[in-house]
Amino acid sequence: MKHIAIGILGAATLGLMASAASATTLDTVKAKGFIQCGVSTGLAGFSAPDDKGDWQGIDADFCRAVAAAVFGDGTKVKFTPLSAKERFTALQSGEVDILSRNTTWTINRDTALGLNFVGTTYYDGQGFMINAKKLPGINSALQLSGAAVCVQSGTTTELNLADYFKANKMEYNPVVFEKLEEVNAAYNAGRCDVYTTDQSGLYGIRLTLDAPADHVVLPEIISKEPLGPAVRQGDDQWYHIVKWTYFALLDAEELGITKANVDEMKSSASPEIKRVLGQEADTKIGTDLGVSNDWVVNIVKAVGNYGEMFDRNVGSGSPLKIARGINALWTKGGLQYAPPIR
């Protein structure tokens, strides 16, 4: 029995040593020299390749911001396009280091799937789009009983769709596809009467259709869709780096720190700005996080602040022209709010 006990103790000790020696996500990322970022297969404004093959959008830029925080270089990121069905397995298995793919934060994903969402980079809600020429007189989703509805499988959109039609005692015919491009093609070809997904996505998809002006996004928002990046559970340091990258983007906007003035702002008379930009004497604001003390400077130089990132990709400076709305800072009546960097 003594030998058995010693053997068990030894095995347990070896297990603990192996666990302690296992590389963290930050170690792995630094060793390979880049961050692997899981994105969509192509959604305008969030993550889609441009005509040169470079990924653009809020979700893609967020990964660049994390790369800038870790490496001081926002280009040290590679993108993995993932379908809705593939995305969680890719993160769980370690194929990607961050999932930044217009993904809704839910309790099931936070618990059963073993993910940690770092924040809400875009507050959204599910909506409906129709071809107004084919469905004249339709101005509300409550008029869609009996419609064929295009929807992507493996998403919260499916459940929300079923709940909405059931609650309103309406019938519908789901036309379901796994891949986003398949849903887009089916709707564009007229295989369904209605397209449903996050409203921001509808505005982006509308631009890709053969006759964008024929299509109308209906006014109803039928769900809460807080979209944001996620990481694997069990690595607090990586979670904190990614989470505070999001907060840094917001704090930079609130303090008026932009891509154009960030170097000038390093010599600001404001103690708060100097602290955020790592200029405070004997600061450990970045090193305690596991990055350099000028990590916020590097983030802003790479992608700008949150407002700049929003405007460039989905807002006034983009083809989508989406108003900030509830994605404005809390100081301007929106929901975007970050804890202080201090």
Attribute tags:
342 residues, alpha/beta, five-stranded mixed beta sheet, three-stranded parallel beta sheet, 13 helices, 38% helix
Q: Can you give a write-up of this model?
A:
By secondary structure, the chain is α/β, with parallel strands linked by helices. The protein is 38% helix and 16% strand. The protein has helices at 2-21, 25-32, 58-71, 87-93, 107-111, 156-167, 180-188, 199-206, 236-254, 262-265, 271-276, 295-303, 306-313, and strands at residues 35-39, 48-49, 55-56, 77-81, 98-99, 115-117, 122-124, 126-131, 147-152, 172-177, 194-198, 215-217, 225-227, 230-232. Strands 10-9-11-8-12 form a 5-stranded mixed sheet, sandwiched between helices. A 3-stranded parallel sheet has the order 4-1-5, with helices on both faces. A two-stranded antiparallel sheet has the order 2-3. Strand 9 (147-152), helix 6 (156-167) and strand 10 form a beta-alpha-beta unit. Helix 3 (58-71) packs antiparallel against helix 12 (295-303). The longest helix is centred in the N-terminal third of the chain and has 20 residues, at 2-21. The radius of gyration is 23 Å and the shape is globular.
